[in-house]
Amino acid sequence: MRIGLLEQEVAFSDPQRTPRSLYEGATPLAELGLIAPRDLDRPVGVLSVGQRRRLALALLVARTPHVLLLDETHQPPVADAGRGLEDALRAAPGAVVAASHDRWLRRGWDGPELALHAS
Question: What is the pTM (predicted TM-score) of this model?
Fold first, then answer.
């Protein structure tokens, strides 16, 4: 079973690599809406925290995990992706488990849902 985890802090081992060189998915990276076409050939080391986090999400979706775990997707770097995040989650081939307080994400999600609430 493949499990993908999008952590709050994203680091790439080689900051000189570009999003295009890291991504090997069937869907062109720019079409996912998570990375702007102008950033595809910039080194990941110069990308913003949000851009790196969105790239990490695209890489996870491309590797087709059975379970995709998202840690606090409401944080601004991922939330700024807008529709790109929602579309990427819909493209995820397996189950998506999101720890989030983001009302926008919950309101816009139309797939199956199991909500856990602390008492």
Answer: 0.73
